[in-house]
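Sharing in case it's useful to others searching the archive later.

Someone asked me privately for the predicted structure of DENN domain-containing protein 5A isoform X2, so I'm posting the question and my answer publicly. Question first, with the sequence:
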Amino acid sequence: MSVSDLSVGCRFADYFAICGLDFDSGLEPDRLCGDNLHVSPLDRSYKGKILAHYPENITSNPFDEHAVCMLCLPAGLQFRTQKHSLEPKFHSFVVTRENASRYYGFSLIFYEEVRNRNICSAMHTLQAMYITELSSGQTPPGHRKASGKESSRSLPRSFKLTPHSGAALTYYDIAKDKLYVAKSIALICQYPYVRVAQLFLENLFRSLPRQPGPGLSPESYVYNLLYEVPVPLPGQALRLYVPPSEPHLDPIPVVIRMPNLPEELPLLDYPLRVMFSTLGVECVVQLFTCVLLEHQVLLRSSDYNKLMLVAECIVSLLLPFTWAHVYVPILPAPLYHFLDAPVPFVMGLHAESGAMNMGPNGPRSIALGSEAALCLVDIDKPDIQLPEELPIFPHRTPFIEELNHVLDKHQIQRPETEPTKLGVPINGTSYKHMGDSMSSSCTLPSGGLRRKHSFHDVLEWEESRPLNASPPASPTRRAPLRMDALQRIVDIVKRSGVNIDDVDADTVMPTTKKKILNDEEQYNEDIRFNVAIRETFLNRFVHIFLMYENFVIMPDQDRESWLSSRESMVNFDKASFLSDQPQRHRPFLSRFLETQMFATLIDNKIMGNWGEYDANLQVFEHRIKTVRTNSLKRIKNAKWQVKDCPPELLLGDISRRLSTEVTPAAIAQNNRAFVEKLLKECKSKTKRMLVEKMGTEESDLGLGCEVSITGVEESTMIASLCDLLERLWSHGLQHKMGKSALWMHLTNYQELEQCSNSTKPIDPNYLTPALAWCVLRKRLDYLSSVGAEVEAHQSTSSGSRSRDSSRGGSRDSSRDRLSNSGTLERKSSQPPNPLRPLPESLTFDMRNVQAMTDIKTEIGYARAWVRLSLEKKLLSKHLRELLADTTLLRSQYKRTAFLRSEEEREQFLYHLLTLNAVDYFCFTNTYPTTKLPYRVLIVPSRKASQTTANCWISISGANGESTPKIPIPRNTNEFVFHHKNLGILSTLRIGHDNSGLSPRWLLDQVYVRNEVTGHTYTFPCNRWLGTGVDDGSTERLLVAARVRAGATPRAALPPAPAATPTTTHLSTSTIQHMIGDCVNAIVKWHYQSKREKDANSLSVLLCGENGLVKCLEQAFLCGFKSVRLFGKNLFIWDYFAKVKDEFKMSLCDEPTSQNNKSCGMAYNCRQDQEHRAIWRCYCHLMDEINSVGRTLGKDGKFQLFICLSLREHWLHRMLVPMSMTRVTIEMYEEQSFLRKRGLLTFLRQILEPLDEFDIVLEHSLTQGI
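And my answer, the predicted structure tokens:
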């Protein structure tokens, strides 16, 4: 390509610049770097300038003199003497324009001797002024901090004592020292070809100054690079020449290449090997997670090039996403105020920067406004400080194992602070578990190899080395067997008397040593490693967002209208996408979907509709297409024997055999095979779901525990079922209208049902001709059926009126009224259903799903409908109803479609019917932000069924949500309220303000039903609400019991007598058995997985009908002298209150022998201190309950006391001090749990195992304590 043909826009380098000291301006302090008068003149920063740049200007990339000079010399202009290290240093940088585009720079900083006497004299003068201030004792404290040591005030004397100390290096003697100043030569390019730029600048520096002799001049190389070297086209390579390392040598040929998108990845010339070998896999994954969630990321290093390398590498791993926020990999001193920006950023800060504050362990703290969302990475240590509450990256542990496998394959060294294999216990802690918590640091004890080890260390070496031959997905199982065999060999050799201490393991089991590579080979190996690592990261995104297109909301407007309203539009159905993801991945994904980089990807996807394609998105979708194509292929390992072919077949007509014509029989056969394959897949999926769910339920009984441990998460399996249904409904479709074929079929069915009513007109714009014919036919059928019913009704009613005319017409009207409200005869004969059952129609569930505002796409609506139908155990019934409309089915599907194959369709529906055998909560647990209606039915007792007080309820659920106090409407016991999805209901609080003439209210039970899912919960009460009756409670906590599907809730029958302390008498053995069962259930609950804990709330195990609180109440009632001759009967809380009074009196007294005698025991001082501590805890807890539980009755306060003492692990410790009080002797019989030693020991020991667990209570149970 000639010079004239080379356009400006495709040059390899835009500018060549020289930055340094302008002798005409002299020494000019860099005020933007802050006040640095407290340091030596050699340590100060001075203002540098662009001395020259070529060419003068380029229209497409104007030269920014200020930015280039600031980044070429990021620490400002520095001076040195011959006592310092004067080695040149290379670093790269990036400049971001106002339109968010970037260009790259490459700078080589070297030191040039200052021969200008004016500059030397000025430096000497500044040195003298600094020494004068130092000797007079006016040194600011910053100098002592910077030196890091105690130094004497006499600066020249300290120089003589320590000539190589830091203080001596900062002293400049004009008579003895040579003065050097920093200078930079730089290239400004559009593409980051780092290796070529570094090689060019370093060799160009070596050729300066130009010596007479053969070879090209440095100016020739600069001119060639600026004006004669283009950027290669995509998919092509270009060879160019850079200066040699020695002037007498030939130019060095270098090849650069431009990737061919989308088959290849975008350009990355920075070696990922350096980042992984410096930080380690753990640190990289943690840093990667922080960048994905758009936290503030601050990198710290003493090497500017490492700052740029780590920043560019970690941002390149975001593919297909791009970092859209502040990006300053090298933060120059004048831009330190950027650290106060309240926006996400990726910045790099030099380790010796003035922005670093000295912490207790060195320069650790950063002068930032907020560090809660900051990720601080110290590259030199390495170390990482993570933000608070950082979620775990999906499949983090397998991902780290996969990265380790790639590093092992390419023989990349790990940092010494990172172990070489996950899961190996380090210092007694499993590193795998530490990694999953996302709170571990990269500075862990070394688990790597030593340089030399004896044969004794072979076992430890084998355990710590990575398994190179084993892929991450299939862990090697032969390693333990090999280790056992090797251990036996070592034992045999030891017993035979052979000394193996001096045997080198490398001679027995030689290792493959890495070949030493030259620069060219190392560069090629780095490029291969870059591709492998980037494909690994990209593959994670591909599998996470494999079906993301289904949830993109495409606009129905033109480009300009969409761009004007883009900020206010919702472009991605996040709720539906998250519903398909495993529960453990949702914390990360829900936050990632809110980031700017994800929103940009979706915007680029939409912009592709108008021909504007993003390069990263094209790469991403190309990988998705590849994964989908490869997933359809089957790998068969069977060995086939080649059979002899008859000669007549070999000699037959080739054209006949290669004919592309396919007979109808072949088409039918292929379609039959495909239909059978779909049916087989449906059978396997439903069977797997059933086995998995039943295995989880069996694990509750101690059976089949391995199924739930190794099984796939429920949400993933249901998402797979939804995908299968979409494929079934897409097979044989006449015309696809929308992303979801299932939802299209459902909406057409709904439209037909609505149009069958003659009052609604047919919309010709909505219906296809085939569907319009279906609507017309349904309407005709409907009208004919209605006419027949009217005629039959008229003929029947005329005869009945003639027969009953003598009895009067009032009887019929009264019968009609009774039939509408429920007949009196039916009330007396059988108990009515308190809640009218919900419709089980397909369209009813569709309307509920369409009312969900969180869902925005057809795919999302279809999946929500499937989840709702599956949870209601109506999926098979609904689909059968949908497919029963043969007219609609024929109008939409071909004859060869799966849905029109009657036999396979029936089998498919029966397979779905088997899922009704288990309970799913896939809708309730998947959409936590959806607002749902709840129907409440309050069933009071016939006695005192009315109250004049203002009543309210508050409901809590497994989703952690709790409703505020909802007022109960007057004169009605049934009402509906709307609230965000509460999940599986657990507790209900009901109470009133005790106002009016007759506030007392006897409540039987309360029913609450989710009007969408149909789940009904009953909250038994059977107690009074009001002061002066029962235990005086105006508020009660009720625990939910779910009414199973098909069961009729019990009616408002006369309640049993209110529970009092004397109504139930159980034997001590029965009570012991009940308490043991409750404790076992609580212990087992804590060992269950999270998804099982949601369905079995701890509140039910504690406060339910047969919960631990009820059982302990029976234990305290055993032998309790509650009945009094005069006055009201006593409650257990009365005993607790008297115990508190006695404890308080004991705490007021000194621990004397008289006090000990009052407690009935003589014990030593240590036991006295323990008991006094328990007394204080007991009294404090009682005071807290009395202060917040003013509306609670005595039984409610007792329940609160038991729950809080269990949470604080105090209950079993309080039993012995309580039993030693006088009150216990007065209020309990000899055979009670508190007075009989054996029963008291049982009660204390059975509750002691609960200390091992962290009991977390709902807010409804704790009253905010």
